[in-house]
């Protein structure tokens, strides 16, 4: 399967990308790098792609489990090399899931399946930098976070 996207320079450091269907995304640099901060940087876009990829795995897995998830967030933090090329050197994902009666084991299983089997962005990034994660599960009946699973 071949994929195709295109990025067109619009001004300054701003690029507008589009996929083959014409769906668009904007990337820009911070003002200190000649941009206007009109969109995420390319590296931030890569981190967003990781969050989107794994999230698009985890949610349907939880739905198939009939897990009662009603809120779900993925935070991605990364360390970056100080010299060029300024690659990511370590990546950490924090999954926060909430729902009435939601269980830690359900979320842990869905996240592990995404990270170990399904998420292609994570699989590619792991070849360049370690990818770790942790989970926090909130049972909204109690509104108290369950003990977070240890980081992997």
Number of domains: 2
Structural class: alpha+beta
Count of DSSP strands: 7
- Which segments are poorly predicted (pLDDT under 50) over 5 or more consecutive residues? none
Please identify, by name, the CATH architecture of the largest domain.
2-Layer Sandwich
Task: For the structure shown, list the relevant keywords.
3 helices; 152 residues; alpha+beta; four-stranded mixed β-sheet; single chain; GMP Synthetase, Chain A, domain 3; N-terminal domain of TfIIb; three-stranded antiparallel β-sheet
Topology readout:
Elements (H helix, E strand, L loop, with lengths): L4 E7 L2 E6 L4 E4 L14 H23 L6 E10 L7 E12 L4 H15 L1 H7 L4 E9 L4 E2 L7
Parallel strand pairs: 5-6
Antiparallel strand pairs: 1-2, 2-3, 4-5, 6-7
Helix pairs in contact: 1-2
């Amino acid at each position: 399967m071949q994929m195709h996207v295109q990025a067109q320079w619009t001004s300054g450091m701003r690029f507008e990308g589009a996929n083959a269907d014409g769906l668009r995304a904007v990337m820009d640099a911070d003002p200190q790098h000649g941009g206007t901060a009109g969109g995420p940087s390319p590296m931030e876009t890569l981190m967003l792609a990781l969050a989107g990829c794994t999230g698009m795995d985890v949610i349907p897995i939880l739905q198939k489990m009939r897990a009662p998830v009603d809120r779900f967030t993925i935070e991605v933090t990364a360390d970056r090399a100080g010299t060029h090329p300024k690659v990511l050197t370590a990546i950490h994902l924090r999954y926060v899931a909430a729902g009435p009666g939601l269980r830690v084991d359900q979320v842990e299983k869905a996240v592990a399946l995404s990270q170990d089997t399904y998420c292609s962005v994570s699989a590619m990034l792991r070849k360049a930098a370690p990818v770790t994660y942790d989970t926090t599960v909130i049972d909204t009946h109690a509104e108290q976070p369950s003990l977070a699973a240890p980081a992997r």
